[in-house]
């Protein structure tokens, strides 16, 4: 393969997502044939903490001023792992400064921000820059196998799609406030955090778009102790005075795909016992698939073409070298985990930069998802009336 210049990355944010992205930048060139990549700078607000995180997660330097970092000539990629309210400002500035950009999902906190980001990307794309939104579950090998089965017509015309993402880390009323529970920083709650993943996956796996949705959002626990956690808002000590929660705890929707299938969507962070339970089911005229993130190395496939006496869902263990991305890891039969999806995502991104081919998930995909989320909120305000997803 022709040599390609080393791509130097600066990541902004070093909490949960910064940590997840760091391990991916650290491993991607070791396991995949991609352009050389260097973890150049890790950026955060607290100089001492970000320096410690940089040393631990393999970054050459740390810094506290992202504006200064995006102007540096020796940085090629800006990776935005900061809370949602900072995505638009940083991503647009980085694109204007000539950088390739990765943005953690959801793309932004509002449709208006996502539209501005897409406009900035379109201008940058004409200059040869690339950008993605990190919907990392597209890069679960079993999800890619599912997408290919649908694309190859093995399911036939689709009738039903059911997608849910259930977690329980907010079930305890004593779990403290964090940026994820404030509208001004997170944009929404489970809707944006988890709903963005499944809205993207439904559209990605089926190759169709969500056209209209009727849905709702609700908040079960309206106040929580202040005293934010330091770990991406997931764990913490809290203990401060009660503060109002300004985002949803759960959201749902019934939608239509462009091809006519009916879609059920459900997300919550208060389903006790569900740790990272994202499921996707697709039922077609000729076949069906089921996936569960808590068993991410498996895909269940029902092939209507099987003989009548032999039909049944069969478990495909997506652990073989022939499966997407899997061959880069361990010998056949050895499982992979959640963190690998980030490595796969960055491998795809780096190669799209090298080959100058379209990068995905694109900012247009991110905007499309944002419009689905906005339609669910709008429907919720209108007593669950159906709302068309804007084009
Ligand atoms: C928290 O709900 C969270 O970490 C999400 O923010 C991630 O996107 C998801 O992958 C796991 O759950």
TrEMBL record:
Residues in GFO/IDH/MocA-like oxidoreductase domain copies: 145-290
PANTHER family: BCDNA.GH03377 (PTHR43818)
Pfam families recorded: GFO_IDH_MocA, GFO_IDH_MocA_C3
Domain Gfo/Idh/MocA-like oxidoreductase N-terminal: 7-126
Protein name as catalogued: Gfo/Idh/MocA family oxidoreductase
Keyword set, alphabetical order: NAD, Oxidoreductase
Keyword DNA damage in annotation: no
